[in-house]
Amino acid sequence: MENPVIKILYSLFNKKSVSNYKRYLNKKTITAGIFTIFLLTVISYFAKPTFKNYNTDKHVIEKNINNSFNLNVKIKGNISYKIFPSPRLEIKKVNLNFKNSKKQIFLETVYISTSPFYINNLKNIKLKKFFILDQTIKIYPNEFKNYFKYFTILKKNDIFLKNCKIFFSDDQNNKVLFENVNLKEKFNNNNHQIVFDSVFSKKKIKLKFTDKIQGEKNLKLEIPDLDASLSAIFEPSSTLERVTGKSQIKLFDSIVTLNFKGKEKFKIDESFFRNKFFNSKIDGEVSFVDNFFFDLNLNINQINLRKFLLYYFPEDKNYGFLNSGISKKINGKFRIFMKNTSSFIGRINDVKMSLIFENGDMRIENGSAILPQGSKINFNILYSDNYKEPF
To answer: Which of 220, 214, 221, 257 is nearest to 239 (CA)?
Structure first.
């Protein structure tokens, strides 16, 4: 005999009101329902952190930023969670300090992408990428060494700057501005790479640094508008304490090939400088200890003195490279030796001189040369732009 309870349920299920639902219960509707429930669950999970108050746990987030990016930060503003365009923390008013830096950098807003699976547990939160977008950032020249040192450290995660402005004040309190700054830092397998591009004085600058772990380090710098570039290869043993390598610098029609080693004071040897006027060997020292200073020997193999003088000292006296003044930041000495050359007055032999740049002045000291017919000239020359009129 059929169970009475089953009989009653069967009769209810077969009523007209229930039969209407039975008609829609098929594989498609069931699959759609399960997918909808799953989607709502996922959205609910990702949206839940947006209602959390992160400001009570600032110290936890600061510690995680330090661990993930090697950055000391102090958060002064609010912290919120954003779902789009990707799960990330939005942090307002951040004082950022690189390791060993004495002056902090202020950022109005930073974004840090996170793993959504740990967002509800800040102690285990996974921070992936550090984004600085559309910011105006003041940096400090006496901290440049610390900035550079920071970007040579291998870190767990990446830092990105996009469409930023970076500025600092030089010794004369002039504002030096880099616009449209973009920076990407990546660490893949055995390669640590930094890509930087910007606009300085309306000129585009592109820089790429690649550090192969236990291998060579490569630096490439390009300024296309000036037809200028620098390419450097550093030996695997190079560190911030001592750098050894070789580089090639191209500026307009001139090419400089340098072999160097040192720290803040570099020894230059077996190097060359050439352009359309002359070809010369270079050796000596370049120092960055306090300010930029050079003490170099130029052994000129070949020179077209007539073209050189006409180019830099043209017959039109209103034009010439001296008329625009000599930068006071160029300080150093060239000891020049030239075996022989042709000139306006004939062949000149055994030219020797010291060419000195000092705070906007240019001097030639202890100059001597053998002129045609065996005569000899000794000379000293001073060009100064430190008065009302250059002389």
So the answer is: 214
State yes or no: cis peptide before 87, omega within 30 of 0.
no
**E-assigned strands of 171-292?**
175-188, 191-200, 203-212, 217-223, 228-234, 243-251, 254-262, 265-274, 278-287
pLDDT tens readout for residues 225-251: 888 999 999 998 887 778 899 999 998
Secondary structure element (H or E) that encloses residue 35, with its range: helix 27-47
How far apart are alpha carbons 251 and 301 in whole angstroms?
20
Q: Where would I find the H helices in 108-184?
A: 144-150
> Which contacts (CB < 8 Å, 24+ apart) does range 339-347 have?
339/300, 339/301, 341/300, 341/303, 341/304, 341/305, 342/304, 342/305, 342/306, 343/305, 343/306, 344/306, 345/371, 345/372, 346/371, 346/372, 347/372
Give the pLDDT band (50/70/90) at residue 319.
very low
What's the pLDDT at 81? 83
Report residue 331 CA to chain centroid gap.
Answer: 26
Q: Which of 205-209, 267-271, 302-306, 324-328 has the lowest mean pLDDT?
A: 324-328
Please report which helix (H) or strand (E) contains residue 42, including its range: helix 27-47
Q: What is the DSSP letter of 145?
A: H
Half-sphere exposure of residue 257, counting CA atoms within 13 Å on the CB side?
Answer: 8
d(CA 94, CA 104): 10
Residue 322 has pLDDT above 60, yes or no: no
Q: How many other β-carbons are positioned within 10 Å of the β-carbon of residue 382? A: 11
- Identify whether the C-beta of residue 353 lies closer than 8 Å to the C-beta of residue 338: no
CA end-to-end span of the chain: 127
Q: What is the pLDDT of residue 27?
A: 61
CA 10 to chain centre: 76
Instruction: State pLDDT tens for residues 290-304.
Output: 778 899 999 998 787
Average pLDDT, the chain: 81
CA atoms within a 13 Å half-sphere pointing along the CA-CB vector of 312: 10
Q: What single DSSP character describes residue 359?
A: T
**In whole angstroms, what is the distance from residue 41 CA to residue 248 CA?**
59
DSSP letter (8 states) at residue 70: -
- Integer Cα distance of 84 and 89 in angstroms: 11
Alpha-carbon span 391 to 382, nearest angstrom: 8
